[in-house]
């Protein structure tokens, strides 16, 4: 997949004119690439387009015009691009009440090692970006990658697949439907 660079980004004033259409397209793409694991965990699989949209939105919200600041955003978001053999997702922990925070946040500190893509009988563990979880709490946003070898990529084309959370108190799974499978296979090339 082509990397992100400054030529992908347009000035804020121009973006404002295109924002509604770009937002609509980005939200439609995000909906196709969403994996909901119960009501508390959501994986959003990133693409070049979703990441460009995120950068443009950050520029807009922060009124970012400095080339250096924009290049820094490109570098940060560029790490989230899917690459050959690697799926990339933003994992959102969806806790909206104080009670949910107290109940679920300590449990979700154990997500690493308990989130995987299952293809047939093989489990591919999510790789979490370091530094977002401590012993007693975790971030509500994580960046994860799933690295697939050639055999696993071939299996994804034809075998049943699902994303799974194997936490004892929050065991959930979500099947990979045909539309998502096509999207993910394209990411892996």
Short summary:
With 189 residues, the chain is of the alpha+beta class. It has helices at 12-32, 48-62, 67-78, 98-108, 150-158, 178-188, and strands spanning 34-37, 41-45, 86-93, 115-119, 122-125, 127-128, 141-147, 161-167, 170-175. The strands form 2 sheets. The protein has a 5-stranded antiparallel sheet with strand order 1-2-3-7-6. A 4-stranded antiparallel sheet has the order 5-4-8-9.
By DSSP, the count of extended strands is: 9
Q: What is the share of helical residues?
A: 40-55%
Strand order of the largest sheet: 1-2-3-7-6
Shape: globular
What percent strand? 25-35%
Give the biggest sheet. 5 strands, antiparallel
Radius of gyration from the alpha-carbon trace, in angstroms: 17 Å
Spatial gap, N to C terminus? 8 Å
Structural class: alpha+beta
Layout of SSEs?
Elements: H1 12-32, E1 34-37, E2 41-45, H2 48-62, H3 67-78, E3 86-93, H4 98-108, E4 115-119, E5 122-125, E6 127-128, E7 141-147, H5 150-158, E8 161-167, E9 170-175, H6 178-188
Antiparallel strand pairs: 1-2, 2-3, 3-7, 4-5, 4-8, 6-7, 8-9
Helix pairs in contact: 1-2, 2-3
């Amino acid at each position: 997949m082509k990397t992100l660079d400054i030529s992908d980004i347009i000035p804020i004033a121009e973006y404002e004119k295109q924002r509604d259409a770009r937002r609509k397209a980005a939200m439609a793409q995000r909906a196709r690439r969403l994996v909901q694991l119960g009501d508390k965990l959501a994986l959003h699989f990133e693409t070049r387009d979703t990441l460009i949209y995120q950068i443009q939105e950050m520029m807009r919200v922060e009124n970012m015009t400095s080339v250096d600041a924009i290049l820094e955003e490109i570098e940060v978001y560029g790490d989230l691009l899917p690459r050959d053999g690697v799926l990339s997702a933003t994992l959102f922990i969806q806790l909206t009440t104080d009670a949910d925070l107290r109940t679920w946040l300590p449990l979700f500190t154990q997500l690493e090692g308990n989130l995987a893509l299952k293809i047939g009988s093989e489990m591919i563990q999510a790789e979490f970006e370091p530094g977002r979880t401590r012993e007693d709490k975790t971030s509500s946003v994580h960046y994860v990658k799933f690295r697939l070898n050639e055999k696993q990529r071939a299996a994804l084309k034809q075998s049943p697949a699902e994303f799974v959370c194997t936490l004892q108190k929050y065991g959930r799974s979500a099947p990979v439907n045909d539309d998502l499978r096509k999207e993910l296979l394209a990411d892996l090339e």
